[in-house]
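Design a sequence for this backbone.
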């Protein structure tokens, strides 16, 4: 693996999951949409890495690539490496990949209602992976299903096993999805927007559940989300994606206290704050993300960036190492680039992340202080 400026060099342990220069494209209209363009990161044992960004930036495509769950007719991994415990996954035969899904790598999908099979009981869906991967008897699989339901906070297990997905609330369905992912005791859990469409109270419960499972089992979590409040609650490290690339990466504290890329600054500045004076309009990032059918030659964020320079539209910026754990790809951080003007008010740092959500727990402040 190349020396990645977006990797966290502060830890000596070998990464559990290594992604290096990943490129993923979708066939479209005689050409291709370059959904993921050179993504690299690592995930170590017991940590949570959050991948954040706007819709369409490539977060979910990256997660599905790790699981090899891309639609085969339209999507393909063009190049790059995905290694789990040193084993290359991109060239692994599908039969061997199926043996890894569940016992080693598991995924919690964004919409539990569509991910769960509507005509199968919860018990049947929980037991399916156990019967396939662990070769348990039906009685043993049923007992394990009851245990994992209790672990995720769903009581009355025997009765629940006979119910169907539509008989549960949104929060309960999400807990069932987590139970299914955890049933075979995976080492890596990929959580794709696990709190989307849930109210803040249920969001907090799901985050507490994921943290509790991580503490007890030591599972590593790759958290895909656009909600910075969720990131402040749950993440150890953060990777910010824009237009298929990671533009900034660091610890949660570094990203929230000292964002260096204008896109990261804009994301944070656009979040509502508790101390915003009444009547002041919310800030936003002007413009829209670029068309990845024909990506721009330079920095993809340049057309929306209030501090863009001529070089930004011509050449892709290099990754600048800010600290051993913090890096960002921006010409503003390169001494060879022309000097930029003062940072505009619209992309100011939003201050302590505790203000990003009004109904998160006090652990947010503890995580980034």
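Sequence:
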């Amino acid at each position: 693996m190349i020396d990645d400026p977006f990797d966290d060099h502060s830890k000596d342990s070998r990464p559990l999951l290594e992604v290096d220069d990943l490129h993923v494209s979708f066939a479209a209209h005689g050409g291709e949409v370059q959904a993921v363009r050179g993504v690299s990161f690592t995930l170590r044992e017991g940590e949570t890495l959050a991948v954040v960004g706007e819709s369409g930036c490539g977060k979910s495509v990256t997660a599905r690539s790790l699981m090899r769950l891309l639609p085969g007719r339209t999507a393909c991994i063009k190049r790059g490496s995905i290694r789990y415990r040193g084993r290359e996954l991109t060239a692994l035969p599908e039969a061997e990949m199926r043996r890894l899904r569940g016992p080693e790598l598991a995924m919690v999908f964004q919409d539990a209602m569509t991910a769960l099979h509507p005509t199968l009981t919860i018990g049947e869906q929980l037991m399916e992976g156990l019967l396939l991967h662990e070769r348990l008897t039906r009685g043993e699989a049923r007992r394990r299903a009851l245990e994992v339901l209790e672990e995720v906070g769903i009581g009355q297990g025997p009765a629940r096993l006979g119910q169907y997905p539509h008989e549960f609330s949104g929060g309960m369905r999400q807990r069932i999805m987590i139970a299914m992912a955890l049933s075979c005791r995976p080492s890596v859990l990929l959580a794709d927007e696990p709190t989307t469409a849930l109210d803040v109270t249920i969001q907090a419960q799901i985050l507490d559940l994921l943290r509790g499972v991580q503490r007890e089992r030591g599972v590593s979590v790759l958290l895909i989300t656009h909600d910075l409040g969720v990131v402040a609650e749950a993440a150890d490290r953060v990777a910010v994606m824009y237009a298929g690339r990671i533009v900034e990466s660091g610890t949660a504290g570094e990203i929230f206290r000292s964002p260096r890329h204008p896109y990261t600054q804009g994301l944070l500045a656009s979040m509502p704050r508790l101390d915003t004076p009444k009547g002041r309009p919310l800030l936003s990032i002007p413009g829209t993300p670029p068309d990845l059918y024909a990506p721009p030659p330079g920095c993809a964020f340049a057309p929306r960036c209030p501090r863009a320079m001529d070089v930004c539209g011509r050449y892709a910026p290099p990754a600048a190492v800010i600290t051993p754990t913090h890096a960002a790809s921006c010409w503003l951080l390169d001494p060879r680039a022309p000097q930029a003007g003062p940072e505009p008010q619209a992309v100011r740092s939003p201050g302590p992340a505790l203000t990003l959500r009004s109904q998160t727990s006090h652990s947010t402040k503890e995580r980034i202080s």
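Residues 341-367 have pLDDT under 50 and may be disordered.
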